[in-house]
Amino acid sequence: MMIQLQLKNQVVKIDAGELVSYQMNGHQYIHQKGSPGWRSSDTEMFPIIGPTAEADFKVITPRGEAVQDQHGLLREMDYELFLQSTTEVRFQKKYMAGSRVRNMKYPEKSSQAMLFWPYDFQFEKHFVLTNKGLEITFSISGDKDMPFMLGYHPAFKLHSKNPIIHTGAQTITLAEVLAVGSRALQVPDCTEIVLKDEKELRIKTQGFKHFMLWTEVPNMVCVEPITFYPYAVDQKNLQQGFRNLKDTQEEFKVTIVPV
Questions:
Q1: CATH code for the domain defined by 2-258
Q2: Spatial contact of 101 and 48, defined as CB atoms under 8 Å apart
Q3: Which of 48, 49, 188, 191 has the smallest count of CB within 10 Å of its CB?
Q4: pTM for this entry
């Protein structure tokens, strides 16, 4: 079911928890499904970020090995809607430790038909449209000290030939992002990025420590807040990037602000 949020000249569309459209004054900021580049428009990477094929799809945790495909199992689960208004909507996913989740990449792109995680968790995604922009808050609750990584993976539509990405410390061109390819370009120790395209867009974060940038086409770019850059370690050592859940709940926020 498509949900629409609206506030003055801002219109947001959300399909089953996925941000599929964000327009201000008719200008589309979100990559559209069916366009070259990526089949989605946003997703979450949890409880791990990055590929696992070279580690035989296994990730080490204090409770033993877990079977995870690229970017974790959360993206394979369906959101449930539990709050909605004209400017706000909240979704959740609940998982019981050890439950098997079907891997949609099997058998074409993966040898693992089922994925699992040895911890209970509840994951909430909360959209709020404000006068300043769109706020997206992720709330994670579950077993105390659960290890995890979190990444948000939105794709932004590009309207110009030479967009620029400013991080505060550096300026990055689209050509530089394209040159890195599937690994994604690391932007360490950064909580705010400005995407200068036909229109300017500011992406601010709380809780995340880094970004990575990915695209393989010139018409879109993914600006991804992350807690850990997965290519900093060998796939067999992904557990080095874990953080532990504090007091059974944590919140992370991304604010998208048209300038």
A1: 2.70.98.10
A2: no
A3: 188
A4: 0.96
